[in-house]
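Good morning C.,

I know you're traveling, so I'll keep this short. The sequence:
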Amino acid sequence: MDSRELKKLREWFSKNAAALPWRSLDLNAMRDPYAVWISETMLQQTQVSTVCDYFVRWMERFPDISTLAAASEADVFKYWQGLGYYSRARNILKTAQTVKGSLPATRKELEALPGIGAYTAGAILSLAYHKPEAILDGNLVRIFSRFHALNFLPTESATAAATYWDFAKQVADSPKAYMHNEALMELGRTVCKIKNPDCEKCPLRGQCKAYTNGTAAQFPPPKKHIQKDWHGTVLVVESKDHKILAIHGGQKFFSNQFALPHFETLKSVAAGLPVEAEKLLNIDQVLEQQRVGQIKHNITVHKISCDVLHVILKTTATKAAINHPDFQWIEKAKVTETLANSFSLKALELI
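The tokens, ready to paste straight into the viewer:
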């Protein structure tokens, strides 16, 4: 993209920039590094329309890094609930506890922090500090692929990645890099869309090879998706005094946070306590068990279907024998507030 195309891009962005809670009304103003970090992390794998409300609630609860650093993981997960990919929230908390009040202003220091990669570091440096730093997200990949007619993705090889990053660096080689970067993200979201790109409204169409050739819909090439089916059983274990069992660690999913016990089981097996569940619970303490339905859930490449078993114990929580190194009993009335992952919440809705 030459200087003329970038000037057209800036003019387009000045007229078409959407009002977003993390974006200043003055598009030339430096932004809060903390707000950039949180918004860009939330936007990974999540649509802008979804993130807006989450961002506002988050900033009300954790207005600065110091407040966030003092929070518990459970509280952070509560405000992340529904965004998925909980490792992002965990890394945010770790970073807040590491930096002690403010984010560094160099790429090397930023990328050394938990959960901050090349893209997020570039976004912070560019949008908050106005440094000529490159970024490369899905929107820019799509634009570069169409603009230069690249029939490969940056994930295919180191050479492919370097090619895309070279184009990103060319865009960022300017005192206005912050505006070029954000304008391209906006352009990819609203005009150069995945499906049905609105090329006639694009300020870059004059030099876009895909537009010139009438092949915009063919770029970028499709990703190679690998999806794995996973069937299991989720236990909603309820004690005599109406508390729900949650365990931490040793599970296929949500191993690093408290969640309902879940085990992989065959679809052909009749509903009942899996062998692993019998190892977790003292069967003599089980009063009754009932299959209450099935949930479906997607986590990364896993397409999950689970039978949900409601297991009622004869004993109170304090007397129940649970064979697991890290578990807790949660008041049934408060369990939906305490468990942060939607996987567990879907199962709880069935009882």
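Safe travels,
E.
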